[in-house]
Write a structure and sequence with these properties.
single chain, alpha/beta, 4-stranded parallel β-sheet
Protein backbone atom coordinates (compact mmCIF):
# COMPACT_ATOMS: atom_id res chain seq x y z
CA UNK A 1 0.00 0.00 0.00
CA UNK A 2 1.25 3.45 -0.90
CA UNK A 3 2.23 5.60 2.12
CA UNK A 4 1.63 9.34 1.90
CA UNK A 5 2.77 11.82 4.55
CA UNK A 6 0.62 14.85 5.39
CA UNK A 7 2.62 17.98 6.16
CA UNK A 8 0.46 20.49 8.03
CA UNK A 9 1.41 23.58 10.07
CA UNK A 10 1.10 23.07 13.83
CA UNK A 11 2.61 25.91 15.85
CA UNK A 12 0.51 29.02 16.42
CA UNK A 13 -2.95 27.48 16.76
CA UNK A 14 -2.12 23.98 17.86
CA UNK A 15 -5.66 22.81 18.67
CA UNK A 16 -7.19 23.98 15.37
CA UNK A 17 -4.22 22.78 13.33
CA UNK A 18 -4.33 19.35 14.94
CA UNK A 19 -8.07 19.14 14.28
CA UNK A 20 -7.73 20.31 10.67
CA UNK A 21 -4.89 17.88 9.93
CA UNK A 22 -7.15 15.06 11.13
CA UNK A 23 -9.92 16.26 8.83
CA UNK A 24 -7.49 16.43 5.91
CA UNK A 25 -6.43 12.86 6.55
CA UNK A 26 -10.04 11.66 6.79
CA UNK A 27 -11.00 13.44 3.53
CA UNK A 28 -8.00 12.02 1.69
CA UNK A 29 -8.78 8.52 2.98
CA UNK A 30 -12.43 8.86 1.96
CA UNK A 31 -11.39 9.97 -1.53
CA UNK A 32 -8.62 7.36 -1.88
CA UNK A 33 -9.24 4.41 0.48
CA UNK A 34 -6.45 2.32 -1.03
CA UNK A 35 -3.72 4.72 0.21
CA UNK A 36 -2.24 4.89 3.72
CA UNK A 37 -2.25 8.56 4.74
CA UNK A 38 0.01 9.37 7.69
CA UNK A 39 -0.77 12.38 9.87
CA UNK A 40 2.26 13.15 12.08
CA UNK A 41 0.34 15.77 14.04
CA UNK A 42 -2.05 13.06 15.14
CA UNK A 43 0.92 10.95 16.22
CA UNK A 44 3.36 13.48 17.68
CA UNK A 45 1.37 16.70 18.08
CA UNK A 46 0.79 17.42 21.72
CA UNK A 47 1.98 20.12 24.08
CA UNK A 48 4.03 17.67 26.15
CA UNK A 49 6.30 16.72 23.24
CA UNK A 50 9.57 18.55 22.72
CA UNK A 51 9.56 20.26 19.29
CA UNK A 52 12.93 18.85 18.24
CA UNK A 53 11.94 15.32 19.23
CA UNK A 54 8.61 15.61 17.43
CA UNK A 55 10.30 16.87 14.25
CA UNK A 56 12.89 14.08 14.38
CA UNK A 57 10.11 11.50 14.79
CA UNK A 58 8.15 13.11 11.94
CA UNK A 59 11.17 12.98 9.61
CA UNK A 60 11.68 9.31 10.50
CA UNK A 61 8.05 8.68 9.53
CA UNK A 62 8.50 10.69 6.34
CA UNK A 63 11.51 8.54 5.42
CA UNK A 64 9.25 5.53 4.77
CA UNK A 65 6.76 7.44 2.59
CA UNK A 66 6.64 7.58 -1.19
CA UNK A 67 4.98 10.98 -1.27
CA UNK A 68 4.23 14.01 0.90
CA UNK A 69 1.22 16.31 0.68
CA UNK A 70 1.71 19.90 1.84
CA UNK A 71 -1.31 21.70 3.27
CA UNK A 72 -1.98 25.43 2.88
CA UNK A 73 0.27 27.58 5.04
CA UNK A 74 3.23 25.19 4.88
CA UNK A 75 5.45 28.04 3.62
CA UNK A 76 5.16 29.82 6.98
CA UNK A 77 5.89 26.74 9.07
CA UNK A 78 9.47 25.93 10.07
CA UNK A 79 8.57 22.25 10.49
CA UNK A 80 6.83 22.00 7.11
CA UNK A 81 9.75 23.72 5.40
CA UNK A 82 12.13 21.22 7.02
CA UNK A 83 9.90 18.37 5.82
CA UNK A 84 9.85 19.78 2.29
CA UNK A 85 13.64 20.16 2.27
CA UNK A 86 13.93 16.55 3.47
CA UNK A 87 11.66 15.41 0.63
CA UNK A 88 13.76 17.27 -1.90
CA UNK A 89 16.99 15.82 -0.49
CA UNK A 90 15.60 12.26 -0.38
CA UNK A 91 13.70 12.36 -3.68
CA UNK A 92 10.26 11.94 -2.05
CA UNK A 93 7.49 13.18 -4.34
CA UNK A 94 6.04 16.53 -3.25
CA UNK A 95 2.38 17.38 -3.82
CA UNK A 96 0.04 20.09 -2.57
CA UNK A 97 -3.37 19.42 -1.06
CA UNK A 98 -4.96 21.26 -4.01
CA UNK A 99 -3.67 18.40 -6.22
CA UNK A 100 -6.36 16.23 -4.60
CA UNK A 101 -9.62 17.90 -5.73
CA UNK A 102 -11.84 15.09 -4.41
CA UNK A 103 -10.48 15.55 -0.89
CA UNK A 104 -10.70 19.35 -1.17
CA UNK A 105 -14.39 19.04 -2.14
CA UNK A 106 -15.02 16.84 0.92
CA UNK A 107 -13.29 19.38 3.19
CA UNK A 108 -15.21 22.29 1.64
CA UNK A 109 -18.55 20.46 2.02
CA UNK A 110 -17.78 19.73 5.67
CA UNK A 111 -16.79 23.35 6.29
CA UNK A 112 -20.01 24.56 4.66
CA UNK A 113 -22.07 22.17 6.78
CA UNK A 114 -20.28 23.37 9.93
CA UNK A 115 -20.95 27.02 9.03
CA UNK A 116 -24.64 26.26 8.45
CA UNK A 117 -24.95 24.47 11.78
CA UNK A 118 -23.19 27.31 13.61
CA UNK A 119 -25.36 29.89 11.86
CA UNK A 120 -28.45 27.92 12.87
CA UNK A 121 -27.30 27.79 16.46
CA UNK A 122 -26.66 31.53 16.43
CA UNK A 123 -30.11 32.23 14.95
CA UNK A 124 -31.76 29.96 17.48
CA UNK A 125 -29.93 31.67 20.31
CA UNK A 126 -30.80 35.14 19.03
CA UNK A 127 -34.40 34.17 18.37
CA UNK A 128 -34.82 32.96 21.92
CA UNK A 129 -36.02 29.50 20.96
Amino acid sequence: MKRVYISHPYTGDEHSNLEHAGKVRAALKEAHPDVCYLNPLGMFGDEDTDYTTALADALELLSVCEEAIFCPGWEKSTGCRAERAYCMQQGIRIRDLKDYPEAVRILEAEATQTRLVLAGLKLTKQGGR
